[in-house]
Design a protein that fits this description.
Order of helices and strands of chain C: HHHHHHH
Largest interface: A-C, 34 and 40 residues
Shape of chain C: globular
Low-confidence stretches of chain C: 1-7, 184-194
Radius of gyration of chain C: 20 Å
Distance between the termini of chain C: 14 Å
Chains: A mainly alpha, B mainly alpha, C mainly alpha
Structural class of chain C: mainly alpha
Helix content of chain A: over 70%
Oligomer: heterotrimer
Low-confidence stretches of chain A: none
Radius of gyration of chain A: 22 Å
Distance between the termini of chain A: 59 Å
Mean pLDDT of chain C: 87
Strand content of chain C: under 5%
Chain lengths: 52, 218, 242
Amino acid sequence: MPDLGKYAAEVLSAYGVSILLIAALVGWSFLRAGRVRRALEEAEARMKPHGR
Amino acid sequence: MIALLLRDLKLAFRSGGGFGLALAFFLIVATLVPFGVGAEGATLARIAGGILWVAALLACLLSLDRLFQTDWEDGSLDLLATAPIPLEGAVAVKAMAHWLTTGLPLTLAAPVLGLLLNLPGPAYLWLLVSLALGTPALSMIGAFGAALTVGVKRGGLLLSLLVLPLYVPTLIFGAEATRRGAEGLDPATPLLLLSGITLGTVALLPFAAAAAIRVNLR
Amino acid sequence: MSLWEYANPKRFMQTSAWLLPWFTGLAGLTMVAGLFWGFFFTPDDFRQGSTVKIIFLHVPAAMMAINIWVMMLVTSLIWLVRRHHVSALAAKAAAPIGLTMTLIALLTGAIWGQPMWGTWWAWDPRLTSFLILFLFYLGYLALWEAIENPDTAADLTAVLCLVGSVFAVLSRYAVLFWNQGLHQGASLSLDREENIADAFWLPLVVCIVGFVLFFVALLLMRTRTEIRARRLKALIARERMA
């Protein structure tokens, strides 16, 4: 860790908040992607017996 | 189109039409402010112009969701869309009716409320002028927002979220004109810019609003 | 009705499928490299101390916040004119990313501003414009969520994006008129590179590129999800009718 001097709290919280927000965005995107894909696969499987 | 205007005016004045509501809301907000910030004369004098502008802006919002909603519900919006007059014209007329029943009364009531809020003497005229020039823009921008959300049930809150950020430039120039007038400075620049916004929105937003209504009617 | 309503989404799904891992890898590498470089290997600023390190987050996020809205504007126009569904869905997918970038810009700006200007928030023109942009993103997303029919939602949000863009530019100038502000235009503006020393400039460029790649990768993924979601909706609607 470089010597952040008297602004350590600010710099670390800025990085912390940003990384947190990006991680949350990516995480939510992945979760939603998984949910939608599974639901779509189920729906398509249900449609199959009835034909295209 | 005159017929449409008169019809909308009549509807607004009828009970439940919301005519007095905006004025009452305007009064209430102006009354609340001293409870919030203290009754000290100097403080109120400094913020009165801005407060009145914000309050007028919020009061305009009140009757917006009603603008197209009732017509949408009873099918008259469909009729308007297929009528001989262009939908853009109908939208502009409805926005004008909104202004006549909301923006204009608010403008006229503002100086009276200015008394409550210790508005500085020179500011009265400029408050009146800026509101007169700016409230038509508020009605037109509001009409655009109402057109977007006409199909959304209980879309009032969404309407506010969409419309309030669009109100910012009008508010900035209107309040600035009032402030400059209050201090004895020349308010020409903000007033010109304010007029520019009003003219621009009145000229162009009917097209966007009509497009939104057509989409919603599909 | 075929499985995918239009050929366009199908080709998009195919192309994005193999593009995605590349962009993800590149984005991860560049972002990490840029942020590490900036965080660990840059000197402190004479006046700002170590807080200058916040620039490596604040500036790229701010640039993305604006560029993503511009992208949404372009794709909204393409949707309105050419009716490519992928375009409308890409705009929808981009919005949360733009919202997050705006929020990062606002928060890092506030955290940076506190020691520098002595206040958590200042109604400085740039910060204020970003706050307004944040509200625009919120409104856009709220409108997508509020409308049932996907095509109607696509059309209305596209119109909102258009009108919003005009007002965003208008607001930018109105806000400048309203308050001249604390932001040092020169030293933080990237048009005037000579004002930032090379020691900061190079890692900053890497970070900016990293954020752009991150956006592209995440956008590809999210657009794929939106396309699938739309198809899911169509299938469920068909089931209900059957």
